[in-house]
Amino acid sequence: MNVKLSRTPNRQFVLRELKDYLMIALSMVIYGIGWTLFLLPNDITTGGVPGIASIVYFGTKLPVQYTYFAINAILLLLALKILGFKFTIKTIFAVFTLTAFLAIIQKFTPEEPLLQDQPFMACLLGATFCGSAIGLALSYNGSTGGTDIIAAIINKYRDVSLGTVVRMCDMVIITSSYFVLQDWEKVIYGYVTLYVSSFVLDQIVNGNHQSVQFFIISKHHEEIARHITKDMHRGVTILNGTGFYTGNDVKMLFVLAKKRESNYIFRLIKDIDPNAFVTQSNVKGVYGEGFDHIKVK
Predict the structure, then answer these.
(1) How far is CA 127 from CA 37, 56, 86, 142, 222, in A?
(2) Do 187 and 45 touch, CB atoms closer than 8 A?
(3) Which of 98, 120, 232, 258 sits CB 3.0–4.6 Å from 28 for a disulfide?
(4) What is the pLDDT of residue 1?
């Protein structure tokens, strides 16, 4: 029995880590597609280190992967000290994956840019791909590097939106692209890319961290509470109540959980007591063990 219990957490840990690396790799592929197929060929500057690499490419034709990798090598040393080994090792994996993929995809990029006569559509599509990729990577403890690292560092100590930090860091980078492109229209497309990618980033990251609260009234409240505690490792608070119409004493369960866990809780309640009275509502922030850390200035 002891052997079985000791193996289960290890297996769960390995599977969870494997899932993280697979999702980070997928996010890098998505980012590479958005950057090299839609933005770069149409002279549209993105933010962060990719934006700096793009500017260098526009001015010197130096392949973007070289500049991207060199700058990130410096930032990763900073992340290793502040964000810890776990975050950094996954970011290193992400940087290497994206660098390798950039070299591959540029060999197969068509000479005629996609949406060459529709730069606005290229801007929207590229920004959507890039924003989704960054949000996906951050959700699985990874990062594409660059200003994502800076955003993660600030977010660790301050309750500031990741997208806001990225926008602030990237405004200067996108504006400076004018000195190379000499075209304000391209700079404006860069601003649009920045806004769309930041918006998509916030939607993905905040969606993954959104929490919900449940109030559950059931004759089988003890069994429901036991399963929520045992199966989901979520705390349950039992509140005493009295029905106004019947005058009967009732037990009410109060549960806080991640939004992605809602379906599991509903299935659990339905299996135990299909007639249970349940309310669910979104909460703006939950801080404490099992949720977010309290961040104050």
Answers:
(1) 11, 20, 28, 19, 49
(2) yes
(3) 98
(4) 38
Over residues 179-235, the pLDDT tens digits come to 888 888 888 998 898 888 878 887 777 666 678 899 999 999 999 999 998 887 888
User: Domain 211-283 falls in which CATH fold?
Assistant: Alpha-Beta Plaits (3.30.70)
Dihedral angle computed from the Cα positions of residues 235, 238, 239 and 240, in that order, rounded to the nearest 10 degrees: 180
DSSP H helices in the chain = 2-33, 48-60, 64-82, 85-108, 119-139, 147-157, 162-176, 178-181, 184-209, 221-232, 262-272
pTM over 0.70: no
Residue 33 corresponds to which tokens in the numbers above?
A: 């597609």
- AA identity, residue 158: R
Sheet holding 277-283, edge to edge: 236-242, 249-258, 211-217, 277-283
Q: Which of 135, 160, 137 has its CA nearest to residue 26?
A: 137
| Higher pLDDT pick, 296 / 209 | 209
What ranges do the domains of the chain cover? 2-208, 211-283
In percent, how much of the chain has pLDDT > 70? 81
